[in-house]
Each structure stands twice: as C-alpha cells, then as structure tokens.
Amino acid sequence: MILDSLRSVITFRDGWKFTREAAAGMEAADFDDTAWQDVRVPHDWAIAGPFDRENDLQITAIFEDGQIKEGEHTGRTGGLPHVGKGWYRLRFDLPEDIASRRVRIEFDGVMSHSRVYCNGEFVGSWPYGYTSFAFDITALVKPGENILAVSCDNKPHASRWYPGAGIFRHVRLVTLAPVHVGHWGTFVTTPSVGKNSATVHVRTEISCGLPRESNVELETVLLDPEGKQIAAIKESRRIAADAVFEQQADVPSPALWSIETPRLYTARSVLRVEGEVVDVYETLFGIRTLEFNPLKGFFLNGQRVRLNGVCMHHDLGALGAAVNRAALARQLRILKDMGCNAIRTSHNPPAPELLELTDGMGFVVIDEAFDEWHTGKCDNGCHILFDEWGERDLRALIRRDRNHPSVIMWSLGNEIREQTDSERGREICKFLHDITHGEDPTRPTTCGFNCADEAIANGLAEVVDVPGWNYRPYAYARYHAEHPEWPMYGSETASCISSRGEYYFPVEDEKHPVRENLQVNSYDLSSPNWASCPDVEFRGVDENPWIMGEFVWTGFDYLGEPTPYYRQWPSRSSYFGIVDLCGLPKDRFYLYRSRWSSEPTLHILPHWTWPGREGEITPVHCFSSWDTVELFLNGVSQGKRSKDIKNLLSKYRIVWNGVKYEPGELKAVAYDADGKPVAETAVRTAGAPAAVRLTPDSGAMAANGLDMAFVTVEIVDADGNLCPRADNLVRFAVEGPAEIAAVDNGNAATVEPFIADYRKAFNGKCVVYLRSVAGRTGTVRLKAESEGLTSGNTHWEAQPPEE
Questions:
Q1: 701 is in which domain, residue-wise?
Q2: Domain co-membership, 331 together with 458
Q3: pTM of structure
C-alpha cells in the first residue's frame, strides 16, 4: 500500500473473511480465519436465505396497524436469517512511515451492535446499524500487516421490516497529516441568496495534533458547477490544538440548485502548516433557498413546489441491504420517470450514496433519524439504545448529511409512541429538536404523526417546525383551521396495496383483502384498514392548497411487513409499493405519473387475456394525462369518458364499468381540449407462450465490480405480446465479464432464492441483476432459456471505469 503524503482514502471492499460462528478470541491478531468465507463488503449475510417462517415468527399486536389482541405474525422482517452473530476480519498493510500519520477507520453502517477491533485491541462500538461512525486507530496500527475485526449481533425482534445483517455499507481507511480537516468537519451554508449574488459561509473544524504551536493557514477555494474557481478565502493562525475557522465569500450570479437543475458547487479546503500543504478536502454543496409557508406551501428558490414524494426503506429487494450505487440510481430513475421529486428516508438514516444521488439527480429529501424513542414497538428495537445513544446517533446523522442541498428537513421520528404521552413525549421531542437546530439552524425539524390529534392536544406537535400527518387527508382542513401558523404536509399517505398484474372481479374498494393465493388486486382500490386508495389523498391535497404535498407509502416494495398477509406464509415482502420489489412498475405507477409528471401518460388496465370470461363484465380503468379518453374494443367504441371533478373515482382516473370481455384488441384514444386525438395505447389478447424476450436497462456498464445492469425478462407469444399470466421457469447463463448477482420476479408470496441462476416468471415477467467484474472489459452476453420456448439473448459492453 502506497499512501499519498496528504489525505489518503482507501475503500475496503475485497479481502474480507466472514463467519456466522462465534468463538473466543476471534478478534485476536493471530486468530486462524483461513476456513472462513471470502466475502466482499458491502455485505448482507442474510439475503441468500433460505426463507423460513421460523426466522422471524412473532406473537405480537401491532398498535400502528390497529391491532389490539396479540397474534402470530410471519414474514414481518422478510423471513430471512438475519438474527444472530457474525464476524468479519480483514488484513491490510501500512507503510513504514505510518507512525507520522493519523489513521481513521470509517464505517457507513454496520447492522448491528457492532464492535470494532484493530490488531486484537478493542477500538469502539456502535449499536444502531443505520448510523455512520468513525474511530481513530492511530495508536493501534503498525507498519506492515494489520488486522481489522468487526463483530455484529442482530437481536431478535429488533425491527419492523427487513434490516439486513452485517457490514452492509462501505468501510474506508483514511490516513492524514497531524493537522487536517476533521471528520465531517465542514459545514457550508448560504445565509444570503439573490439573483445577482449569493453569500457562502464555510465553517471548518481543524484537528490539530502538533507538538508545538505552528502557523496554520486554511484556504477555502470555491468552484462553480463546471469546476471553475470563483472565489478563494485565506486565513492564518498560530495554533497547537483543535480550532474552528469561519470564512465567507460572495458568489456572483449563482447557479441555483433545484429539482430541474441540480447544480453543485465545491468548497475545496486547503490546509498549510508553515507554508506546506498538509491536507486537501472537498465538500459539495448547493446554493438554494427554502421556505415552508403555512398558507401557500413549500417554496424552493422562491418557486412553489408540490412535494410529489415517496417513502423508501433502505433495502434493494433481491440485493438485500448491501448498498449498491447502481441499484439506488435505478430506483431513482424509475421514480423520476413517474414524476416523483421527493424522498423520505423511512425510518432511519440512509446510505450516503442515496443523498449523493439525490443531490445530483434533483430530488428533495426528508432525512429521518428514528422509528422509536424511549417507548418500543419491538422488544429489541432502537428504544433500548435511546438513552445512551440517541443524541450521538442524531448528531452523527446531521453532521454527516447537512451539506447535501437535497436535504430539506430533519425528521426526528416516525409514529413514535410518545405521541400519546403528554409530558415525556414533548420533553423528548424538544430535546431532539434543540440538538438538531444546534447542529444545523438552516433546516426545519419534522415528525410523522399518526396519532395526530393526541400529539396536537398534548403540545408535542407544536415542538417541531413542520408537523407531518400520516394518513389524515380528511383532517387537513381542521388542522389548518386550528393552527393556521403551521406549515403542513402528508408525511405518509395512501398505503394502497397491490400485486403487479393481479386482477379480481368484481372490482371493489377493498379493506384488508385476503385471498388464498396471497395476492392483492391491481385495480388500485385496495388498502389496509387505516389507509386509502391514492385518489383520496389526491383530493386531500387538492382541496387544501396549504398542504405542501405527500409522501406515499411506498415508492418500491420492500422486504418484510407483508400487509395484509402478516399471518400467512410464505408472504414475506410488502404490497405497498408503486413499483414492485424487482423494479417493475405496477399499474398504480401510471396513476401517479398521470398526476405528477409533465410527460404524457396513457395507460389502461387490466390485461386483455381472459380465457373463460367471454361475455363477462370486465371493468377497464385508464390513467391519463388527458381529461378525455375513448375506449375501443375490437374497433367498437365503448364510449368517450371524461374526468369528473364531482366523483372521486372519476376525478383522477377514467372508468368504463360495463365492458364485456371478448378476445382481441382493447385500445384507448386520448383527446386534447379541442377534441383532437393526441395519443393512443392498446393491450391485446395473448396467445400461448412462445419466446423469452430480454430488455437490458443499459447498453454498457463500468468494469469496476460495482456497476450493474438490470435485465427485464418477459414471456411473449408468437406475435410479441406479453403473456400476462405466464409463470414459466427461466434459466440464465452469462458469458463475459459479468456475474449474476440476483434474480427476482416481484412476487411477494414466494420463497424462491434471490441468489440463483433461474427464476419463474410472475405474471409474465422477472428481472436478472448482473454485476460487472472489476478490471475486466469486453462484451457481456446473457442467455435466457425456458423449456419449449425460443431462447432470449442480449448483450452489452463492460467498459473501463471513469477515472
């Protein structure tokens, strides 16, 4: 290992050894780990399975779901073997001059109750798995080989969803000069922003390990989004201990960060000791203004923005909780296409990569800290850590994330049970609120309140700057009338449930539906008892313009919480997603797209392959950007319909309830305000399955061992029509510099393994996740075979990674 004379950052990905065994002395430098498994970090030890209902079987009552009596719950955390202990060990070399350096080990997240050792000596611990943390290991390292050991201990009944297991986010070794910018040591704010000029303030914390007082100069160079220097501020001091520098400069004609134009500036911190450069550290930031107006809503750079938001858990479906930038970027691209502009990181600190992506892609973010305070929802949830660790976790979150322009609010908690505890709840909330404003006075605090009336009555809701209402569209007007001085928004909305491509008749507004096949109707009218179809929330936002917008539960399906089938196995993942677990949009995606996106949308459902239903009523719904649509069945008009603002289920969707099924073509034609046809879409009756069709999401990927390609697999008939009920088993083979990382089909009720080279189609589709191989370029070829069908083939290039 060769270290730069300045700051050196090395990401520890390869070379890790792992075991689920536990024995005395595993942290010791001379412990024999040769028989352990070779793994790569980020790593999730549980995602490979196997699924088993005994892995997370619980006897409990979920208060938030309205349950009073205790009962059996299965699949609540995904039915995967995440509970238990695990050990990781890594050997790394350091050069002879390491004694003159400072050495820090950084973890973006370890699930959970981690303990870190270096060369057999205990370094420190951090129990909350979602928090990023770092330790100084200068006194423990030596020239030559060093041993890093990390233990994890996932407690049973510690989560309400799949948490993952192990070192599931990145690890870095940072070596520094004795004088350097501290860990998360910069804080960039823009106290004044105008059309012609913006003031940029940079607060920089300097860590100083000098034996005697020396002259230290901090030069902060500001670079515009194109990398051109636009300002430089220098300050010199004689110091022999840690210090804080406050610097300020004006930026002419600032390029504002926005959802449409997410322009990023750079603050480059250059440290010199006695004239010699000892550290260079860069901070990305954005110039933008935020306003939370209680009468008019949310404003970004003076422009009103409706928050078209979704809540997102941290898992990546078949990839588990192990973070992958390419998979996160894919999720965000899909959401962007839907018109989504906001993310709520429910219900915990996200991976740093998510915020880096939202900064660059143009999303605003509610950054959430906790799902529990003192009062627990799970026996071993984060409430058991709160007294000792709550403040440290919150400060770590804010200090890590406060330079991200995409972050607009700090959420102190989600549906915390102290909402009904008048004195304790308000006291804790005030404690967290004050910490937050002490670390970052530029952004408001918020909470997601599901017991909103109680939280308002006991004064807890007034502590936060912007209260959020979970599932309360019917109360928006009352809350505003009682507290017109409060900005408000829907922090968690809808909770509509559906299974991609599943349709049942008659079409009804279902509450907590239960079917033997453990699926839910995709007409998007089904919901748990506390929730509603999307249309109800749309109306709540439209009729109350002071509401800043909504955050739908959820953008993607996630592992765990298989409502409404929390007592039926093998249901092991959610039905809440607008997009299914493997990233395929459900019908509901197009309902939100028709409302949220500026791009045209015209989508009809259900599919039109119904053998045995000839002549039976088969309602047709249309999600359209246009107000008027005409439906044709085999060329015969079924009537022209327009959205009806007086009827809830015709205000946001167009419905034909009397269509009788006959095979053929079902076509929708949209008309503009002048009555001219402007768009059309059609679905056709499919014949027998004939072939496998492959569609990769990209034509290339970087040969860095991290980049991924996501290939949609479809079962089609001889004419290329999707076979919407096909469940053929498909086997995959890859040639070239890539590997199959996972497979999935979006079915929430199956225990097929994710780590495999085969998958059954679910309603005609599945997805293959392919990962590049580090350092290997060339053509990647994927072949998909299914008995009796024409094979599918596709290829793309693995290219050298960008420098």
A1: 691-799
A2: yes
A3: 0.97
